[in-house]
Amino acid sequence: QVQLLESGGGLVQPGESLRLSCVASGGTSSNFGMNWFRKAPGKGREFVAAITSNGDSTVVADSVKGRFTIARDNANANNTVYLQMSSVKPEDTAVYYCNASGMWGQGTQVTVSS
Question: Each residue of 39-92: pLDDT tens digit?
Fold first, then answer.
């Protein structure tokens, strides 16, 4: 069974950058795509970005296109997916979740505020 552990969240000012990480352990974690979702206060869960199992294709939501990128490192047994967030905005404030193989991480809080 795959386990996901996110990290890297925190408080940042508008316009700054932040990188989230998600380590996948257990199962055959290199065989599946990985995704980032987010949930802002009072809103439903929103898709943010996805990457294929070998990292050769990515998709990002229109709301973050041009500001966020997704990447992964399959070099180790525990694969890691990253969400590089740039030029963040207050509306990016949310709990960010990693998703893969039907499993979810516990989430990491990102707060964008001056």
Answer: 999 999 999 999 999 999 999 999 999 999 999 998 877 789 999 999 999 999
How many CB atoms lie under 10 A from the CB of residue 16? 12
The Cα 82–Cα 26 span in angstroms is 18
User: Can you point out the beta strands (E) in 42-92?
Assistant: 45-51, 58-60, 68-73, 79-85
CA–CA separation, 90 vs 99, rounded Å?
Answer: 23
Beta strands in the chain (DSSP E): 3-7, 10-12, 18-25, 34-39, 45-51, 58-60, 68-73, 79-85, 94-100, 103-104, 108-112
Say how many Å lie between the first and final Cα of the chain, rounded: 40
Can you tell me whether residue 63 is helix, strand or coil? coil
Calpha distance 22→97 (Å, rounded): 9
Ramachandran area for residue 101 (φ above 0: left; ψ -120 to 50: alpha; else beta): left
Amino acid identity, residue 8? Answer: G
